[in-house]
Write a structure and sequence with these properties.
CATH class: Mainly Alpha
Number of strands: 2
Number of helices: 6
GO molecular function, one term: DNA binding
CATH topology: 434 Repressor (Amino-terminal Domain)
Strand content: 5-15%
InterPro entries: Lambda_DNA-bd_dom_sf
Protein name: XRE family transcriptional regulator
Largest sheet: 2 strands, antiparallel
Radius of gyration: 14 Å
Length: 99
Amino acid sequence: MRDTTGHKIELRFKSESLSISESWLNAMFKNLKAEMARIPLSGKDVADTIGITPQAFYDKMSGRSEFKRSEMFKIQELFFMGLLLDYLFRWDLDNKDYN
């Protein structure tokens, strides 16, 4: 299966949940993960600060659920004021490793 830009997407179904290939998941929020590692900042730290559970943050980072716009703004304003939202929350699907 391919998305609208032609990138390969592998989907597997496990009971009622949807599983996406690991290489594709690694492309999700790659910049946010890198910036968190530079500080260093844990997912629990971010979750606690923006008012969600660590599990909810993990689900959002792994694509199981979506970040609310307000959560993205909080993350940017509280931790990464000098960085653009587009940069932090970009999916790096143009990288050849994910095609």
